[in-house]
Amino acid sequence: MFSDFALHERLLKAVAELKFVEPTPVQAAAIPLALEGRDLRVTAQTGSGKTAAFVLPILNRLIGPAKIRVSIKALILLPTRELAQQTLKEVERFSQFTFIKSGLITGGEDFKVQAAMLRKVPDILIGTPGRLLEQLNAGNLDLKEVEVLVLDEADRMLDMGFSEDVQRLVDECPNRQQTMLFSATTGGSGLREMIGKVLNNAEHLQLNQVSQLNATTRQQVITADHNQHKEQIVNWLLANETYQKAIIFTNTRAMADRIYGRLVAQDYKAFVLHGEKDQKDRKLAIDRLKQGGVKILVATDVAARGLDVDGLDMVINFDMPRSGDEYVHRIGRTGRAGNDGLAISLICHGDWNLMSSVERYLKQSFERRTIKEVKGTYGGPKNVKASGKAVGVKKKKTDAKGVKKKTGAKAPTKRKIANRPKTDALSLVSKDGMAPLKRRKPEAPAAE
Ligand code: AMP
Hints:
Blueprint: H1 9-17, H2 25-35, E1 40-43, H3 50-62, E2 74-77, H4 81-94, E3 102-105, H5 111-119, E4 124-127, H6 129-137, E5 148-151, H7 154-159, H8 163-171, E6 178-183, H9 189-198, E7 203-206, E8 217-223, H10 227-240, E9 245-249, H11 253-265, E10 270-273, H12 279-291, E11 296-299, H13 301-304, E12 312-317, H14 324-331, E13 341-347, H15 352-362, E14 367-368, H16 414-419
Parallel strand pairs: 1-6, 1-7, 2-4, 2-5, 3-4, 5-6, 8-13, 8-14, 9-11, 9-12, 10-11, 12-13
Helix pairs in contact: 2-3, 3-4, 6-8
Bound molecules: adenosine monophosphate.
């Protein structure tokens, strides 16, 4: 029960108004420690309720009578505009019965309007690092009296190249009394370095056992012969599955646009989101999806970051994500806060090994599904290794017409095979699982 926490009654009233009954595991673990003022490092995915886990303790610290504001007391840094906007909404909902004021600073919004907002000095400032630094450099922002600093989705901020910007902003808060760092993954050396620099004697709460993720989401794979066949399967799923809202993930912008075009041609109400879409498009897509005017979103990973849309209950991986963490982020869109969800990955020959790596990473075996009406010929590799990956088949030499050559040439030696450039999915993943060894160029994050 939320009333078990030492929270101010006005906050409990807001919690009740929002019809939150039971705290989620991350809230149960983090709120008491955060209320004590402890530094926290929390590993928890989006959708776990982590926002309330840091927002409620911050509000509890700042709650009090109406007064003239002289300084920003809390700063919340996030990687994307959408996430920042959603966090502002959450803060406003929880602070509705208090005098606490919050403000938002992200890219894509009017600089001067933001500067005017800063002159009124919000108690809580929420924003993305790039624009916050610009406001700081323009002399519009004073963070010297910040008491609480939150780095949300810190792993993602590092992935997006914000490491130096974040560090600079952290340095601007020398008088902070509490720092909380949230990440969806345990992160790499970059995250460890940041943790060492910004946190002080922090408690590490690890809520994100990947194998326990999304217990309410069924995870299925459907094999496909090629991309056109995948499109047929998508059509079948959209026409026959029961869902409120669906999201289709692709690895490239071009494929997202292509699928979107096909859907619109069939009169589906859909939207496409990728890194080339501007802020207005993104807002519109998310609003329409929330209002229910649009039921299908086609998106790349970068664009879908931080999406929190109620009723998003079907995720289709048109392309298999390139890492286990990315898979977790994608299916984290569904089955949120205890709702049922369905995640379906479409697997061609070239996707198989990536899929089995994700299965091993999650320590789960996805349900194999066949749809009679759109069944193809590919059903997975003939032989698989103990790891689940396909046993490689030696290609026979053929001439340009596809006829087997009778040259009598010797089979290539092992050394020659080893020296060949690797082009299959295997070359994208390391031996132990998911850390990509050689990635294709990722989609550039939208500038903040
Ligand atoms: P978050 O992980 O913070 O993005 O939260 C995911 C969604 O769950 C948001 O829509 C929250 O409003 C909702 N939520 C968070 N905590 C609870 C709770 N204790 N009960 C019901 N819904 C919640």
